[in-house]
Amino acid sequence: MIFLKELSKLAFVPVVLFGSLATASYLISSGYSYGVLPVLLGLAMNVSFGMERVIPYEKPWNENHDDRWRDVLHAVVNESGSAFSVALLPVFSAFVSGFDIWPSSWPLWGQLLLAIFIADCGITCVHYASHHNPILWRFHAVHHSVKRMYGFNGLMKHPIHQMIETLGGTFPLLLLGIPMDIAALLAFAVAVQLLLQHSNVDMRIGPLRHVLALAPVHRFHHIKWPGQGDVNFGLFTTIWDRLLGTAYYEVSRKFTSDDLGIGEEPDYPNTYIRQLAQPFKTYDQTK
After folding, report:
1. Which of 59, 82, 184, 217 is most buried, judging by how many CB atoms fall within 10 Å of its CB?
2. What residues contact residue 162 under an 8 Å CB cut-off, 6+ apart?
3. Contact 66, 270 (CB under 8 A)
4. pLDDT (tens digit, 9 = 90+) per residue, 158-188?
């Protein structure tokens, strides 16, 4: 049993992340409809949530903190927005006069990796700015109000901040002429990555922590105190953090709920509607 658990910790990321992206790329390149992507995402979520129970990083994070349905609502709204954005890609393309130089002759997996690399740069820049600009922070603070880290709260974002991040990640791709297939796969990849980036699975990623912005790396970003948590902004990779000088990892660090949240706003609203309204209220303090 101990051997199987340790093996599961090692296999979790290859199976869920690489397996999901490889399967999705294969099916789309084989002519399947985009309808397979929500099915694959649901499968990845079920596997992830199941493993959070079997090999949890922090057992109390599996317990409901009166936040489960709120997080579900955030996920449904934000994922619906992502799907809607992909559906509107032809409309956006018609209004964006780009260079139309996308390397469509590349293998589909190569195009997806390029899209992830470019989108990761844009999203990282928006994320970094959101910790340094008081107005952006108001909307981003919703995400940092979490008191536990598990798969669902990767999608816990204010819709306005979600829109700004999406624009930062996709506008360069629109200029390059990204095709629908790659845009749909990118949206799927973002959802899977957010799932794993906030997962409560006690995953073992070894040297991958130097490249991929997975949960063991991203937990440092959710430290509740300014300065300490202003690290590891990347969505997919640590590349841009290394260029920004914000990459950080400490092997021996262990996290609990006491480390999470917003130190300057310990009573941040916990319900969905109040979280949507909070950025528009007057603050005595900002980050």
Report:
1. 217
2. 78, 81, 82
3. yes
4. 999 999 999 999 999 999 999 999 999 999 9
CA distances from 153 to 47, 61, 70, 131 (A): 16, 11, 9, 18
The token duo for 181 is 């297939």
Give the integer Cα–Cα distance in Å for 239 and 124.
Answer: 10
Residue 158 gets the label, from left (phi > 0), alpha (psi -120 to 50) or beta, of beta
Domain positions in the chain are 2-280
Task: Give the CA distances from residue 67 to residues 57, 142, 181, in Å, rounded to whole numbers and listed in that order.
Answer: 19, 13, 34
Across the chain, mean pLDDT equals 92
Tens digit of each residue's pLDDT (9 = 90 or more) over 191-244: 999 999 999 999 999 999 999 999 999 999 999 998 899 999 999 999 999 999
The answer to whether 73 touches 269, Cβ cutoff 8 Å, is: no
Amino acid letter for position 177: G
Query: For residue 133, how many other CB atoms are within 10 A of its CB?
Result: 14
In whole angstroms, what is the distance from residue 5 CA to residue 24 CA? 27
CA dihedral (30, 31, 36, 41) positive or negative: positive
DSSP 85-122: HHHTHHHHHHH--------TTS-HHHHHHHHHHHHHHH
Q: Which two tokens stand for residue 86?
A: 């992909």
Residue pair 18/102 in contact by the 8 Å Cβ criterion = no
Assigned token pair, 64: 């409901």
Whether 156 and 74 have beta carbons less than 8 Å apart is answered as: yes
Q: Which amino acid is at 35?
A: G
What is the Cα 80 distance to its own chain's centre?
Answer: 15
